[in-house]
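Suppose a colleague, Dr. K., hands you the sequence of a protein chain of 91 amino acids and asks what its three-dimensional shape might be. Before reaching for any lab equipment, you can write down a predicted structure in token form. Begin with the sequence itself:
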Amino acid sequence: MIQNTPLKSVESEIEIVLDSNLQAQVVFTSVNPEIISSPSQRSSMEMLVKGKSIFLKIKSKDSASFRASLNSSIKWIMLSLDVLELQKEDY
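The predicted structure, expressed as tokens, is then:
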């Protein structure tokens, strides 16, 4: 854990607007289990879907854990979108 930092905590809510409601629902369904089971004790994440938007809420005790959570969630979302794109190419 990082000591002697003036930062008490970091909290952010990020909206990611996708192309369609179906795309948002598929990404949410595939990524949310990772969000729920994230093992960090220094950071917590919550994901919601509304229409074609995904809302990602991250609360962290320090900037390093916030950055790690944000990077992980973005990678999971990008991977899900890449898989969706591959599926389109198969048809």
